[in-house]
């Protein structure tokens, strides 16, 4: 079985227990033909993935950011952009007004924070990206002037308040929003009509001469289900949600045990010197 591209989720899949790339994985990727693209598909913003691609020795790769809401080619040019409309963003913020829930706003290359607290500091540490500090009202005014929406709204806080907000948003706006509860203290909110799979399909159609059936894909969470279902070979790490494992073709090792590297070695390591592999076939 030969694949022409690798597509992987980041957090809980590609990264190890130190939230970093293992030497084993980096060595493997750097040994592959450059004709085999390594495409990261994540809820992260672009800048939170670029340093990972650089560490993999692949600084100029396309990417699927914001769960498919923003698709960039290898030069950083936008291939597709789908956002949550500004009025709906304001509605989400209004729902949090009487709670202690922290709200982070994202558009394109920008991550906006209105206050420095436990949650913003944690995200800076986890993603190695610094936000733009701006008052909420100023962000809304800026987006209104420039006719922008949010590629992602991330809300974080007490698990009980997050459960309440998830229920309210699902009830009142479930037809317009994807609600990914990646942890019991987080909800990552994206436009309903996008997914990592739709983003990858846009990318493949625009830049490559093969389809999603010739891609091997890796994931662990609910927002990876569509990707693993549509890919030629969908791989769930051992720590994946049961629903993700149920749709996968294969279950590999835990992300802390280099599950992605384990599977890629089996598919590619023995083939890396063959003429067909070196040509990216």
From TrEMBL:
A GO molecular-function descriptor? magnesium ion binding
Report the GO terms under cellular component.
cytosol
Highest rank taxon of the organism: Bacteria
Which named protein is this? Cof subfamily protein (Haloacid dehalogenase superfamily)/HAD superfamily hydrolase (TIGR01484 family)
Q: Which PROSITE patterns match?
A: COF_1
| Transmembrane intervals | none
The taxonomic lineage of its organism, from the top, reads: Bacteria, Pseudomonadati, Bacteroidota, Cytophagia, Cytophagales
InterPro entries, A to Z? Cof, HAD-like_sf, HAD-SF_hydro_IIB, HAD_sf
